[in-house]
Amino acid sequence: MSETRNLRLMRALEGAAIRTIESETLTDRLTAIVGQTYLLLGYQTPDSRTLAILVAKIASDLVESYGFMTVEEVSYCFDLGAKGLLGDFAGMNMRTVTRWLKGYKHSDIRYQAIMALRAERARTTLPPPSAAYKEEHERNFLRSVFRQYKEGYPLDRLFPSRVYRSLQERGVIHHSRAEKLYAISLFKNYRPTSRLYMPEEARQAIINSKAMAWLLKREFDAMTELRFNDEEARMAA
Predict the structure, then answer these.
(1) Are 45 and 35 in contact (CB under 8 A)?
(2) Nearest partner of 79 among 4, 5, 2, judged by Cα
(3) Cα(29)–Cα(39) distance, integer angstroms
(4) Closest Cα partner for 233 from 155, 148, 150, 171?
(5) Cα separation of 110 and 95, whole Å?
């Protein structure tokens, strides 16, 4: 593996895991990757509906079976596949994509890059942070989001779904099933503004995200300060 290719793949391995990416963001990035792959293959990009169906299926398979990978790795994998380095090409379809992903996952190229990255980290990184450090880091992130929202930054750009789940896990916010269903009902008629076809599964995921953002906004609007339960207990003591 050339040094340039090795460095590119090492950087790709450092990206965010697919399972942590918002579904809408994942769809947008995969659409760009698939479109670029058609160009590399010398194929004409299909109509928007066909492309959307293929991207939706790829996204679903990635989340289910390759959630540990990064989007940058998928881009790298598709580049290798388009160059004929991951087996025979059988047209730009799910059969080919599945062969590419499996081939890349078990390839020497990926293994060597992972080993090189681990060696690099071993030379430069400190011992892994403690659970307490990770918790404080997450709380600082949540406080930062709350502060930015109060200063007027749009909530939909502050990862509202991730923030909602994190605050819910920490008991800072709590909503009954009825409240959640009501929030979902407010967005039940959502449709994408573009004319691109969107599978129902993807549409429902976006509706759920919008519902969480709506509930989170109500909570933030009612707060003057973001506090966690153990902080409340210490103040009351």
Answers:
(1) yes
(2) 5
(3) 16
(4) 171
(5) 21
23-41 vs 71-82: helix axis angle to the nearest 10? 20
DSSP annotation string for 146-185: HHHHHTT--GGGS-HHHHHHHHHHTTS----HHHHHHHHH
Residue type, 66: Y
Q: What pTM, to 2 d.p., does this model score?
A: 0.53
Contact criterion met (CB below 8 Å) for 70 and 25: no
C-alpha distances in Å from residue 224, one per residue of 137, 160, 164: 21, 18, 17
CA dihedral for 212, 161, 142, 132, sign (positive or negative): positive
Q: Say which residue the tokens 């090492």 belong to.
A: 10
Q: Give the Å distances, CA to CA, from 181 to 163, 176, 177.
A: 19, 9, 6
> Hunting for tokens 């990416």 — which residue is that?
21
| Residue found by looking up tokens 């697919």 in the block | 18
pLDDT in tens, 126-156: 677 789 989 999 999 999 999 999 999 999 8
